[in-house]
Amino acid sequence: MDELLKPRALITGGSAGIGLELAKLLAAQGYDLLISGASGRVHQAAEDLRSYGGKVMAIQSDLSKSSGVDALVEAIMQSGDTLDVLVLNAGIAVGGAFLDLPLEKHLHLLDLNIMSTVRLCHSLLPQVIAAKGKVLMVSSLSATTPTPFESVYGPSKAFMTSFGHGLREELRDTGITVTLLHPGATATEFHARAGMDTTAFGDNSWKNDPALVARQGFDALMAGVTSLIGGDEATQAAGRDHLVNSEEEKARRHAEQARPGSRPQS
Q1: Long-range contacts of 48-53 (CB under 8 A, 24+ apart)
Q2: What is the rounded radius of gyration, in angstroms, for the C-alpha atoms of the chain?
Q3: How far apart, in whole angstroms, are the C-alpha atoms of residue 142 and residue 148?
Q4: Whole-structure pTM value
Q5: Distance CA 148, CA 257 (A)
Q6: Can you state the angle between helices 17-28 and 210-223, rounded to 10 degrees?
Q7: For 112-137, how does the pLDDT look when each residue is reduced to its tens digit (9 = 90+)?
Q8: Chain segment 24-65, per-residue pLDDT in tens
C-alpha cells in the first residue's frame, strides 16, 4: 500500500527566526516540509525538523537572484506536484542613512523582498490553487510607516502587503486563503544582520518572542484570517497608532529608534 500522502508546505527563510518557528508548527501539524535558506545552516535546521516525524527537504538557495528562485522552484517541481501551504518569509533589512550606503545594498534588498516574492508567487501559486491551499506572507509592521535609516525596507514590505491583498481579491473564487502577517520588532538575528547593532533595534531584550509571533501567524493561517499584527499588546497598540498618526510623526518616531548611535549605552 502506498504511504499516505501528507500535505506539503514550503517555508522560505525557514532556517532561523520566525520562519523556523513556523516550520516547527507546520511539522507538528503533520506537514512534510520544504525549507529554503541562503546559508548552509538550512541543512541543520532540516535535520532538527525531521525529529517531528515528517519528510523535510532543505534547499540552499539565494532568492535575491533569479537563478536562486529558479533553483528553488525546480527543486519543488521535481519533488512532487502538490503544495498545500506557501509561506513567504525570506527578507532582509539594511540599516543606515540611504545615501551613506552603496546602491547595490538597496537593490539587493529589493531583489529579495520584492522580486523573489513576485517570482515565487507566479511560479508556485498554481500548485497552491490546485490544492485549495493556503498562503502566508510575512510582511512587517514597518509596512505601515516610513522607515528612515532603513529607508528601503519599509516600502518593500508595504509592497508585499498591498500585493498580497490584491492577490487575495483576484483569487477569491479559487478556494485558497491569503494571510498577511505583520510582525513588530522580534528577538531574532534580523537587525544584527541589517547592521543595526548601535540602534535601539540592536537590543533584543524588549522585542517579541519569535515563537509567539509564529504561533499567531500560524493560527491566523489555519483560520483563514486575512491580516494581522504579530506581537504582544505593545506591538498591537503600535499598529493601532500607525492607523491614526501622520506619516511625518511616524517617520520621526522610527528615526529615533533606527538612527545609528541611538542605542542607550549600558
Answers
A1: 49/23, 49/24, 52/24, 52/27, 52/28, 53/27
A2: 18
A3: 11
A4: 0.96
A5: 10
A6: 50
A7: 999 999 999 999 999 999 999 999 99
A8: 999 999 999 999 999 999 999 999 999 999 999 999 999 999
